[in-house]
Specification:
Two copies of one chain form a homodimer. With 294 residues, the first copy, chain A, is α/β, with parallel strands linked by helices. Chain A has a single domain, classed as Aldolase class I (TIM Barrel), CATH 3.20.20. In chain A, 47% of the residues lie in helices and 7% in strands. Chain A is built from twelve helices and six strands. Chain A binds chain B through residues 19, 46, 51-57, 81-86, 89, 106-111, 113-114, 116-121, 123-124, 143-146, 273-277, and chain B through 19, 46, 51-57, 81-86, 89, 106-111, 113-114, 116-121, 123-124, 143-146, 273-277.
């Protein structure tokens, strides 16, 4: 099984007024992302507010997607949790559904933990999931977790589990870290989290891009991915980066959802689960006007 | 129902070689802490490695304790989770068992969230648990969660839920923050997380102490609590602080468990679940020798 490549949006989650998942709308949106150019879906990520869903909801979302006819080989769900026990349950469930792989956060409660402790955590997950089908993509997001998958630890994990630990999504936004990974690990499926970094990273061997703003601009990002060596590349890259920079100048997840609410003309996209909060009216209007002016 | 007072150790968790909970040893230890002077047990806290237990294990531990004959009014379990859905399930389960209250972490995945978002999170938990018995003790541990229960937010929560939000455990170690709470919120059940801060805090109106090292030195801490106005107070306080400072000069949870392994002559106490790691041989020996010399 080859590792994932291309554009894998971390599909956002629409909520009903009582904050339950609007499953019908969610499933339809996932199908639309695929029709609009996504190679696959990195579902249940940070932008999806996964860590604000309970464990049963997380399993339920994945089952709904597969039952709706999405090819599980086009799904890489986030299955991380603070405890290896819960991470194992989610990862095993996803593997049994036949997904392409799982995005694994480091255990994100305790801080200042050692590479040795993180190695043991991943080892326990792999040992307990106990499936030849298991493919893990490490999920690096130090701004949320307070932890980093260090290049040294990644090398150790790849050495110990070469068939299983096949890639990484890097949401750090740290180009130096990203470039170090690209240099040290040719053949590792490395996904930056922003289309602003994508073209340069692809030139250096990245596998693709898992970006929050692929929720709102998947067509543009796919076009950039395909056309990155064309005469239009510079102009497309500039425009994609401008859109990304604008949306990310607001609280990112709330801004993605405010834009989805406009695009899909439905209030459910505007809702976030606490502790996250939606953009206020003033921010929503400012974002809308600036986006229209681009 | 009056709020909790006194010494409430956050009981540590012994593991078998396969990292499963050694339940028999755990339950016996909890009974011993109560016999040795604990007023109650703040079970399933950070020192207990709760966030390294899966959700079913967390419920199971609490049921075992109650079934073993511990009065649920002597239990304040940690029932926090990153999602309000899981926090609700744990908190409701605990309330139905009749516990004294629940220690609630803020949702600890997303960072940089607003007081408004944290308020909504707590509101959802209270609304969905929907029990008159519910008593919440906020759990402040910014070093792990990256979030703080600000005095302004605490005031808002107390105003909105005066019967329910009754106290706080402050693990920040920040005396300035602690003193601010003590000054602003008379009648709020405030627990510092270290016996080094306890006597001064009790003088200023604190309710007691929830300390990691109450696992290993509950008799000394209870004696200090009772004797803090006696002629022995200064000497007892100095000794308790010296023990605390020594143990906390090592990685705290690992050092508590290494000391428990010595006290109970059982290896199971020395084990931690990843991502935490035990003290190495050299650290263990150094801690043992320095403790013996005190």
């Amino acid at each position: 099984m080859t590792a994932a490549t291309g554009i894998w949006p971390p599909a956002a989650t629409p909520f009903r007024e009582d904050l339950s998942i609007d499953m019908e709308r969610y499933v339809a949106f996932c199908h639309q992302l695929l029709r609009d150019g996504a190679h696959g879906l990195a579902v249940l990520g940070t932008t999806s507010e996964t860590n604000s869903l309970d464990l049963e909801e997380r399993k339920g979302v994945l089952e709904k997607l597969v039952n709706s006819g999405i090819n599980p080989a086009q799904l890489i769900p986030g299955t991380g949790a603070a405890s290896f026990g819960d991470a194992v349950k989610l990862t095993k469930h996803a593997a049994e559904l036949g997904v392409k792989g799982s995005l694994l956060l480091p255990p994100f409660y305790y801080k200042g933990v050692s590479d040795e402790g993180l190695f043991e955590f991943v080892s326990e997950v792999i040992r307990r999931v106990n499936s030849k089908r298991l493919r893990l993509y490490l999920y690096n997001f130090p701004q949320q977790t307070g932890l980093i998958w260090s290049p040294e630890l990644i090398a150790t994990l790849r050495g110990a589990f070469p068939e299983t630990v096949v890639g990484i999504k890097d949401s750090s936004g740290d180009a130096k870290y990203l470039n170090k990974l690209l240099e040290k690990f040719p053949g590792f499926a490395i996904f930056p989290s922003s289309e602003s970094l994508m073209v340069d990273a692809l030139d250096k061997g990245a596998a693709g891009c898992i970006s929050a703003t692929a929720n709102t601009h998947v067509k543009e990002i796919r076009a950039l991915y395909e056309g990155r060596k064309s005469s239009q590349a510079a102009a497309m890259n500039k425009r994609a980066s401008a859109i990304r920079t604008l949306i990310a100048s607001f609280p990112l997840i709330a801004a993605v959802k405010a834009t989805l609410a406009d695009q899909h003309k439905h209030r459910g996209w505007h809702r976030l689960r606490p502790p996250l909060t939606p953009l206020d009216e003033k921010q929503t209007t400012a974002l809308r006007e600036k986006l229209a002016a681009l």
